[in-house]
From TrEMBL:
Positions with a binding annotation for FAD: 66, 159-161, 325
Cofactor binding summary note: Binds 1 FAD per subunit.
Segments traversing the membrane: none
Gene source species: Actinopolyspora righensis
Positions that bind NAD(+): 196-203, 219, 283
Molecular-function annotations in GO: flavin adenine dinucleotide binding; NAD(P)H dehydrogenase (quinone) activity
Domain FAD/NAD(P)-binding: 20-338
Protein name: Dihydrolipoamide dehydrogenase
SUPFAM superfamilies in the record: FAD/NAD(P)-binding domain (SSF51905), FAD/NAD-linked reductases, dimerisation (C-terminal) domain (SSF55424)
Family label: Belongs to the class-I pyridine nucleotide-disulfide oxidoreductase family.
Cofactor section: FAD
InterPro entries, per the entry: FAD/NAD-bd_sf, FAD/NAD-binding_dom, FAD/NAD-linked_Rdtase_dimer_sf, Pyr_nuc-diS_OxRdtase, Pyr_nucl-diS_OxRdtase_dimer
Amino acid sequence: MAATGAESGEAVAESGGYEYDVVVVGGGPAGENVAGRVAAGGLSVALVERERVGGECSFWACMPSKALLRSGHAVTAARRVDGARQAVTGDIDVSGTLRRRDSFVDQWDDRRQVDWVHDAGVALFRGSAWLAGSREVMVRDPDGTTFSLYAGNAVVLATGSVPVRPPIPGLDQVDFWDSRAATSAERAPESLAVLGAGVVGVELAQAWARLGTHVRMIESGPRPLPSAPDFAGDLLEAALRADGVRLYSDAVVNGVSSTEGSVTLELADGTEVSAERLLVATGRRAATGHLGLESVGLHEEGAVDVNEHGEVRGVPGGWLYAAGDVTGQAQLTHQAKYAARVVADVVVARATGRHVTTDAFGRYMTSANRHAVPTVIFTDPAVAQIGYSPERAEQDGHRVRTIELDMASAGAELRADGYRGRARFVIDERHQVLLGAVFVGQDVAELLHAATIAIVGEVPLARLWHAVPAFPTLSEVWLRLLESYGL
């Protein structure tokens, strides 16, 4: 039960456990960042992880899904440029794509992340963990041994999220893919039915379609990406259809059944959709089950509610914190890392006697986690967005002006013949600052950080006029924005 790779905490003889300044539950991006930053601040830290250090993003989500998408994107990009398309004479090498994906996840071996944890001076415990009362974490290791970790200063929950399984009759009787199975598959299935048209659904539908799989997508609304602007969903729908994906819109699934080698979805209109594999991609929820939250007076179900410092509300004493997906905030690796850095800084400050005020983090953390969350959907076209929609901005009392533009510029035209893309900007008319931005098109992800800086920094549009975009690049869309605004 001893820690590996770092000095163990102080032994607590009467209980057979160990005491550390901080105990972090969950070794994904949030947990790693909390642990490393707290250790750098001079505190002793224990990190508990039941699966792979690095978490969902490293092994089953961000990295493998983007690796699966990249081969198809590269070939398609070449085919959009006269002179290059003539050189594309064959199909995508599926086995090569899968080998490249495997390299990004280190063949699902977490030794590199473990080495990083050790080098950071963090004690790593393998096992499942749960709260057993104030500042106490119980751990059951892979051998079944149970022991305690005591936190002198803080416990941080960073257990991430898990897929939602919709209550569809027959679903629990069939063998279906979740996102993990879809990103780690060893071969391309002949056919794939995708249930859900959110981020996971559209990315994996396009990835496998471009690797030669016949894909059917079942969506509950009129277009993909219901949380994005309609024009984004429309452009992506056209691209998915061009890739051979068959879409079933406004669909209701009444039941699921299977025969040998096939899964069938029965739709409310009588249509049957069959495929070799079924991917269920209907969202994720905070992973709070079996965390022992009731031992500290919290409900076991639902996300953990935190304040602007990441401190869990409803638990007296200021010792319990949470960061990442488990808080129910934006389910994004970069946001989890941001929240982790805030939590770590607050924990270290309080442990070393420094006063922490809401001024230090409150305003900007609230904005960053609610109104300034940058999101990229890595399809082709990509969808990059941040900030307010026009409707939400008006609800919050802003006087709004919305400007929509085609992504038409020399930079776009050079990038691809017949480049298709669109942008939308939401502007606060009182203060003449940007509140939100959406970019849709090939390679628009790299435009997003400029919008993030403009929104978080509340940069006046008149000042942005002097931030001259380089020619010829996609960034010329910023010039089009300012011209359309009348500056």
